[in-house]
UniProtKB/TrEMBL annotation:
It is an enzyme of class 3 (hydrolase). Its EC number is 3.6.1.27. Keywords: Antibiotic resistance, Cell membrane, Cell shape, Cell wall biogenesis/degradation, Hydrolase, Membrane, Peptidoglycan synthesis, Transmembrane, Transmembrane helix. GO terms for biological process: cell wall organization; peptidoglycan biosynthetic process; regulation of cell shape; response to antibiotic. This is Undecaprenyl-diphosphatase. GO terms for cellular component: plasma membrane. InterPro entries: UppP. Bacitracin is thought to be involved in the inhibition of peptidoglycan synthesis by sequestering undecaprenyl diphosphate, thereby reducing the pool of lipid carrier available. Catalyzes the dephosphorylation of undecaprenyl diphosphate (UPP). Confers resistance to bacitracin. GO terms for molecular function: undecaprenyl-diphosphatase activity. It is found in: Cell membrane. It holds the Pfam family BacA. The keyword Hydrolase applies.
Length: 270
């Protein structure tokens, strides 16, 4: 394993980590980056590791929210404490919204990933779709807080998350766009989106962990995988913190422009 190859893998980890939280599709960028870096990563163990790295970062960022939801939700279940009712309902809606993508992911994730593995042009088109969706909600300012989310909102957001199984469709974009269209405040939409990401990502990682250990090239690529994994954690953590500030200011239009530019450039030059 030469030094240049190690650098390429670290770049992939940084790219995946940076693009995971923001609505520009990390999976789509991985497809494009592998194409332009001349890498052909077989199987899905690398993507799974990068996803696990991003999951760790999201858990770190939202640890206080997770703790609050767990404590208040348990308090409501055990003692019917009214102070915990809103958080308990929030948890129930997260579970409901998790089901569609969770079921489709378990049943068809390998087939979907294999179908789009080399879909550079498909990724370009889906980036353009992501850009259009972000452009349409660029001026929306919702009013719903965490406690005002309804069952209909959770179902629609959950169904929308299924679309993100296709490379180029951003997972955060696929959930934040409908959430804001349904009237959720930007910070509520962001929180719901990433708390929703946790069970889906965790479930996928657990179900696919054997793929990582059965990767025939794991021994050869252990160091590149390790450095990319660490890079993914660090990049996701700081990218999510940055994106939280962007959402607070309502500047999603910049991501829309970026998706348009990259999508068109790939269609022309790839």
């Amino acid at each position: 394993m030469d030094f240049l190859m190690l650098i390429k893998y670290i770049l992939l980890g940084l790219l995946q980590g940076f693009t995971e939280p923001i609505p520009v599709s990390s999976s789509g960028h991985l497809v494009l980056a592998q194409h332009f870096l001349g890498l052909n990563i077989e199987g899905f163990s690398f993507e799974l590791l990068m996803n696990a790295g991003s999951l760790i970062a999201v858990l770190l960022v939202y640890k206080n929210d997770i703790f609050r939801l767990a404590v208040n939700g348990l308090s409501y279940v055990t003692s019917k404490n009214e102070k915990g009712k809103a958080d308990f309902r929030f948890i129930i809606y997260l579970i409901i919204a998790t089901i569609p993508a969770g079921v489709i992911g378990v049943l068809f994730d390998d087939e979907i990933s294999a179908f789009f593995k080399d879909g550079v042009r498909i990724t370009a088109v889906t980036l353009l779709i992501t850009g259009l969706a972000l452009f349409l909600i660029r001026n929306l300012r919702g009013r719903k807080n965490d406690g005002e989310i309804r069952l209909r909102d959770a179902v629609i957001i959950g169904l929308s998350q299924m679309v993100a199984l296709v490379p180029g469709i951003s997972r955060s974009g696929a959930t934040i766009v409908p959430a804001m269209a349904l009237g959720l405040k930007s910070e509520t939409a962001l929180r719901f989106s990433f708390l929703l990401y946790i069970p889906v990502s965790l479930g996928g990682t657990i179900l696919s962990i054997t793929d990582i250990f059965h990767d025939p090239r794991l021994g050869e690529l252990f160091l590149p995988y390790l450095f990319a994994f660490i890079a993914s954690i660090i990049a996701t953590y700081f990218s999510l913190r940055w994106f939280m500030n962007i959402m607070a200011k309502g500047n999603l239009v910049y991501f829309s422009i970026y998706c348009f530019v990259i999508g068109i450039a790939v269609l022309i030059f790839a």
